[in-house]
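Example record

One chain of 71 residues, shown exactly as stored in the release files.
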Amino acid sequence: AAEAMIKAKGFNEAYVRIDDETVDVVVNAQEITDAQAAQIQDIVKRKTGFSSDKIRISTVKKYHRISPVVS
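Predicted structure tokens for this chain:
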């Protein structure tokens, strides 16, 4: 549910992992603004009940694989 709400905020991919003590959020972006981080944090807090200090937000870039050169 949190992933769908984060995607609705304009991120085409989002991954949320919850364990006993923390929530990790990864979005497909090179960087995010403070406002976007606050939106993500608000969504995760409402959906999980975790406090802000237990939520870690990361970004990731997709890399295209380059085919090996065959000689």
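Notes: The first strand starts at residue 14 and ends at 18.
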